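To assess whether ligand presence alters the predicted conformation, the chain was also submitted together with iron/sulfur cluster. Input:
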Amino acid sequence: MRWGFDNMRLANQANISITTNRSCTLRCEHCYIEPHLFASKEQITVDNYKLSFDRVDNLYRLDQGLEEVEWEVIGGETTMMPFEFWQQMLPWTMDRIDRFNKEHNLWIDGNLNFLTNLIWSDKRYLGLIQEHAKHPLFTLYTSFEPDTNRFGKNNKLLNTWADRLSSIDANNKAVDLILTKGLIDFGAQRVVDLLLPLGVDDFSIKMLSPFGSGKVFFDNNMTPFKRMEDFVIEIATLLPSGITFTPGVEIEHAFINGKSVQCNGNFRYDLSIEPNGDTHFNANQTGDESVGLNLGININSANWATEVMFGNRAELRTKLTKQHSCCDDCKYLPRCNGGWHHYKSIDVSHLMQDGGCPGLKGVWDYLADKSNGKSNHSTFPEWRNPNGGVYE
Ligand code: SF4
Ligand code: SF4
């Protein structure tokens, strides 16, 4: 691992993670949330929720390097909020994001990723989600892993999860697949066979976070990057046309439009807005592990955007400069940024055997080959910016 500075490296997107509550109906073993937070009864207020969008609007106007904004509402479990909260806030949110996209004339429209584990006790949520699921800016986002206790003892909740997922008719239905040992052992073909009939149209493949209650799980369930790579490529080959996968979509955007890949945590901002309005800089780190919580930035501050822009600098610098030694000569570095951001501060060298890396270089090679229609990696396209310029 070394530190360096490379002007060509890019991070231009914000992930705005609005945490409505930290309580959850499940106790997944890989969860990045610090366990004591599940006991918190705190819930975001309507005022703070709405204010979050206005503050991000200010940030977008202030930071000229910020080009895209993606919104997610997250818990804990979001449906542990009072039903009336989402009944009021879901339509409001769709209108607010639509207005945000139009006012800023975004190159790629921001979406609302509504995260839910689908294990709710208030049955009215099914109808409420369905009411909004056809909105073009709404993405239903849930998760699947076979080995994290997500579905309880003997996977007894799996059928409930699958039935609810299947019954929602959504424009965008994404499932997070965390690359645990168990998921890879489960097999790409079985994953595809399970999820496609449920109407899933985006396979969002990500890596384990070494934080919160997931730390122990991480130590025992990480798998070499080369194995992850092979799994992702197999998924890619199995998906029918029109069904997308992460990081595939972002890598293709990097090839075609010069966009940076963000799904590996290398967002310009990865902001977590807590239920009480406190704001910190890595949505995968909570409680005592939070980055920048000590700065005391709260959504109620009129200077929130300025405080966020300056407070985030150290985190952004890490994203744009830190890399693994295997990245030194990698042609994908300007847009990959050295792979999964959360592995830049821990030693993952033991997972890099056989040429694997935390940016899944083999997946980039696979898609570069595909986009060129050739098997020669040297034909990889030059980096181009959206205005037609060439980065290198
Ligand atoms: S991973 Fe999600 S569903 Fe599982 S315990 Fe954590 S917050 Fe709850
Ligand atoms: S693909 Fe791998 S080697 Fe290349 S920059 Fe990303 S992490 Fe580094």
